[in-house]
UniProtKB/TrEMBL annotation, chain A:
SMART domains: ZnF_CDGSH
Gene3D superfamilies: CDGSH iron-sulfur domain, mitoNEET-type
Residue stretches making up the Iron-binding zinc finger CDGSH type domain: 30-64
Protein name per Swiss-Prot or TrEMBL: CDGSH iron-sulfur domain-containing protein
Pfam families: zf-CDGSH
Keyword terms, alphabetized: 2Fe-2S, Iron, Iron-sulfur, Metal-binding
Species this chain originates from: Arthrobacter sulfonylureivorans
Superkingdom to which the source organism belongs: Bacteria
């Protein structure tokens, strides 16, 4: 690619970080994290079973919080 | 797909006429039969004859039907028959699905409302049953029922792309590109589903099991084509996609657990695993950018976005209820049991 797309991070309310554009996703040692799609959703609730990616668990946590209220 | 077996006068007239290819004479009879059936049906969503006829009429726009000339796709009289059945289906849905069109929606508030609709849905949970209880035979029936959509997954929503502009179009293209594997051969979601079917010893060709599929399941697929093929319903197809994405990641995690519990390996579960990650991305884009972007550009479409969303939940609830009721009663959820002769031998319980 001759020009890089600007990277955009959408902070989804009560949801993940949606990352789109040109970026590298690396672990603590700088090694690439396996990635199978251009735009990714990164877990922000800590509950995902496929971290660093979102698996929708934040919705279950929200439902549990609502039920507990 | 192979020509299905008729289920009543409408599908019989249609499926006899199409392969003969000289069916002009049969068309008045077909139109009359469809008119009578649409007027007389107790519930068009559960009407095997009308739903199969509609499914076949739509299939002319997708993969076609073996032995049927593709020119029938745009035959004016067939389109009239289709419109007659569609009108009955659409009014049935509009009667059943309450839609309020809230004012002053922003893209984020549209997403919030759609997520809330999905969260509040208390329809029967096929995924919980699959995860914990389903037998290998029921799990196969589940895959067969899904196959009438999943083997053409994403296609009904793709019809909307030329009818959208701006942010909504970008969002739809971004989601659909991922559905079609991001350009990587073999990664199209429909192909991953075909792999799942093969791993279960099932025939992955489109429509192989259409004769087994009950009307209500056909109705849920037909509704996507109804919304997708008409510009006037572009709001509904966008709302439908948003709800599909929002009700996907967690159930797919459960389906994957169910098939692992039954001893199947990655070749069967990959499709479901992929959807856990993919649809957690898609649901964010579909709510805010697709549905929200569409309403921001054309607020008059808000009511149809929510109509499409609620229709998706409603039909999924009815189709899920059909399956769970049948299984709870010890019956097959299919119209006819799977033909063992058509299945390839597979060792159930063997992990690969």
């Amino acid at each position: 690619m001759t020009s890089k797309e600007p990277t955009e991070i959408v902070v989804c309310p009560d949801g993940p970080l949606l990352v789109r554009g040109d970026f590298d996703l690396v672990d603590g040692d700088g090694a690439a994290v396996a990635r199978s799609r251009e735009t990714v959703a990164l877990c922000r609730c800590g509950g995902s079973g496929i971290k660093p990616y979102c698996d929708g668990t934040h919705k279950l946590l929200a439902a549990r919080r609502k039920a507990a209220q | 797909m192979k020509l299905p077996h008729p289920r009543g006068p409408v599908s019989e007239t249609l499926l006899n006429a199409l392969p003969r290819n000289d069916a002009a004479d049969a068309l008045p009879e077909l139109l009359a039969a469809a008119g009578d059936a649409a007027a007389a049906t107790e519930d068009v969503l559960y009407d095997d004859d009308l739903q199969l006829a509609l499914f076949c009429l739509y299939e002319l726009h997708y993969g076609g039907i073996d032995g049927v000339d593709d020119r029938w796709e745009w035959d004016v009289q067939l389109l009239q028959v289709r419109a007659l059945i569609e009108q009955r289906v659409e009014s049935r849905l509009r009667e059943s699905v309450a839609v309020s069109a809230p004012e002053k929606l922003t893209p984020q508030s549209v997403a919030d409302r759609l997520f809330a609709l999905a969260a509040d849905d208390d329809g029967p949970s096929v995924s919980a049953f699959l995860a914990r209880e389903a037998t290998p035979e029921q799990a196969k029936e589940f895959v067969v029922l899904r196959s009438v959509y999943q083997l053409k997954e994403a296609d009904p929503h793709t019809w909307a792309i030329p009818r959208l502009r701006g942010r909504a179009k970008s969002a739809m293209v971004e989601i659909q590109a991922d559905e079609y594997g991001g350009g990587k051969p073999g990664r199209i979601h429909a192909e991953l589903f075909a792999n799942t079917m093969q791993g279960l010893g099932l025939d992955p060709s489109f429509g192989a099991y259409v004769d087994c599929i009950p009307a209500i399941t056909l109705a849920s697929v037909n509704t996507m084509s109804l919304f997708g093929l008409q510009r006037r319903l572009r709001g509904a197809i966008c709302g439908h996609l948003a709800i599909y994405e929002m009700t996907s990641s967690i159930p797919n995690g459960k389906y994957a657990r169910g098939f692992r519990r039954l001893g199947f390996g990655d070749e069967v579960t990959e499709y479901f695993d992929e959807h856990v990650e993919a649809d957690s991305v898609h649901e964010q884009i579909a709510g805010r950018d697709l549905a929200g972007g569409l309403i921001a550009e054309d607020p008059a479409l808000a009511a149809d976005v929510f109509f499409g969303a609620r229709s998706a939940l409603y039909l999924d609830g009815l189709a899920g209820g059909w399956q769970l009721d049948a299984w709870a009663a010890g019956r097959s959820a299919l119209r006819q049991p799977l033909d063992p002769g058509r299945e390839v031998a597979v060792a159930v319980g063997a992990s690969v």
